[in-house]
Specification:
Length: 198
């Protein structure tokens, strides 16, 4: 019987996906006539839900333009950009770096600890990455943005994972890197381990 639960964020924690996400979103927004700079994506968008940052990309791209942001920026455009990103993302998987230290930790603890992947990523992209790296068997359960109503910084994703495994927060550990993810982690009441650059 496993008595602990370890929950791992994906992007920036187990996998450095800044570049893979950047190039995929860059290709996606360019299909709609927008532009995206690497620094803007890395420091403003990365780690957040697309529904929050895709509108910021459009607004940033239209700065100094005579186009009316309120006319251009519709929910339909946001979803179309996200769909385009989902379709081209696998082309950039060669740009993903692994956090070998945490991957090895999971391999060591998984026999006496439940291990869950808890991410704001889409189910499609998450499972594609796990398949690409042959990591499908690392996790007892995978929780994505499709499994919750409220995204991080709401703690719903972590609370759901603890409920699934019937674990108290005191017996649960969250590995997170981003500010928004850490806020969700602390709100969940679980033990939190902040992951730095790797």
């Amino acid at each position: 019987m496993k008595e602990k639960l370890a929950m791992f964020d994906m992007d920036g924690t187990l996998y450095d996906t800044v570049d893979s996400n950047y190039y995929a979103y860059k290709e996606a927004v360019e299909q709609f006539g927008f532009t995206l700079e690497h620094d803007f994506f890395e420091f403003v968008c990365y780690g957040h839900n697309y529904k929050n940052f895709v509108p910021m990309i459009v607004k940033e791209s239209l700065k100094g333009s005579d186009q009316d942001v309120d006319v251009v920026l519709t929910d339909e455009i946001v979803e179309k950009i996200h769909d385009a990103k989902l379709e081209c993302y696998t082309k950039y998987f060669d740009k993903i770096r692994l956090n070998d230290g945490l991957i090895n930790l999971i391999k060591r603890i998984k026999y006496n600890t439940y291990v869950a992947l808890v991410t704001t990523g889409s189910s499609k992209n998450v499972h594609e990455i796990l398949e690409f790296f042959h990591h499908e068997d690392l996790f007892d359960e995978v929780f994505t943005q499709d499994d919750v109503e409220n995204q991080k910084p709401d703690p719903e994703c972590f609370v759901n994972a603890m409920k699934k495994f019937k674990m108290d927060p005191k017996d649960s550990f969250i590995y997170e890197d981003s500010d928004v993810g850490l806020r969700a982690a602390y709100k969940s009441g679980a033990n939190v381990i902040k992951v730095g650059k790797f």
